[in-house]
From TrEMBL:
Record-linked Gene3D superfamilies: 3.40.630.30
Coiled-coil annotated residue ranges, if any: none
InterPro entries: Acyl_CoA_acyltransferase, DUF4081, GNAT_dom, UCP21603_acetyltransf
Protein name: GNAT family N-acetyltransferase
Residue ranges of domain N-acetyltransferase in the record: 144-281
PANTHER family in alphabetical order: GCN5-RELATED N-ACETYLTRANSFERASE, N-ACETYLTRANSFERASE
Length: 281
């Protein structure tokens, strides 16, 4: 396949091993990219987009996942600029740019004049990891959710998403798609919750996972139950369950202004390793 003057080309199934070798340089920060490569084999029809690679002397030195989310992988500033130039020629199709701050910032500098005004820019999102037992007592009531509980779980997922992202996942009639996504996480055993008298009072999901790490998303407690320690005990339980049955390291990233969540994660034993940034359209 012909490369561009910047050494960037489309990746495909023949590049999966090289892509995974690249992502393994930081298997926790790159867990999303590794999960997507393993489940799609970098086939555009399964990716719902493309994967790009940047090469130097025939070696893959950086990559970029371009689906609903654009995610730079092991990208230095010059790599992010090269991916940005390719993105300018292609036009914006993504709804989110997310990844390590330096790469996201340089990519955005390259495309910002042409890609339009984003809905939100979140430059400082601490990336947190725990690779041992939680330092808080786990809630014994937290467990995997079941399909029969979807009618209670789904509204909580919509509420969390709307609160976190600022727009409902059901906008534009996408409720069937989002409900299917929630149901898939339940079926996979990646959805965890605590119920009190049938009411959900804590939830969290695994967004993606490999043999090295699992990334948590969707941590939520109903507003009227906040301040009771449900998030601390709930996340401690999720960490125990995930480390025992899914992956040895657990990660997530959090908005810098969300002090209650950051305090809760610190009490569970999460440690900051790097900084992510997210740009949303």
């Amino acid at each position: 396949m012909v490369t561009t003057r910047q050494g960037v080309r489309l990746l495909g199934p023949g590049d999966v091993d090289a892509f995974l070798d690249l992502a393994r340089r930081d298997p926790v920060a790159n867990v999303f990219a590794m999960y997507r490569a393993r489940t799609t084999r970098l086939e555009p029809r399964w990716l719902g987009g493309e994967a790009w690679g940047r090469f130097h002397d025939g070696e893959l030195v950086a990559a970029c996942h371009v689906g609903a989310n654009l995610v730079p992988i092991e990208s230095r500033e010059e790599d992010a600029r090269a991916f940005g130039e390719r993105a300018l020629a292609r036009g914006r199709s993504v709804s989110t740019i997310v990844g390590p701050t330096e790469a996201v910032r340089e990519f955005w500098r390259t495309v910002s004049d042409s890609w339009g005004r984003p809905r939100d820019l979140r430059w400082n999102q601490p990336h947190l990891v725990i690779d041992g037992p939680p330092t808080a007592a786990p809630d014994p009531g937290v467990r995997r959710t079941m399909r029969a509980e979807l009618d209670e779980l789904y509204p909580a997922c919509v509420a969390m998403y709307t609160e976190e992202v600022g727009v409902s996942p059901e906008v534009g009639g996408r409720n069937d798609l989002y409900r299917t996504r929630v149901a898939q996480l339940v079926s996979r055993g990646w959805s965890f919750a605590r119920f009190d008298a049938g009411r959900l009072v804590f939830k969290a999901e695994v967004a993606c996972a490999t043999d090295d790490a699992a990334q948590i998303q969707g941590v939520w407690v109903p507003p009227d139950r906040r301040g009771e320690g449900l998030a601390v005990a709930g996340m401690a339980a999720v960490v125990e369950l995930v480390r025992a049955e899914i992956a040895p390291r657990v990660s997530l990233y959090v908005n810098e202004w969300n002090e209650p969540a950051r305090r809760a994660y610190a009490r569970v034993g999460f440690q900051e390793t790097t900084t992510f940034s997210t740009i949303m359209f």
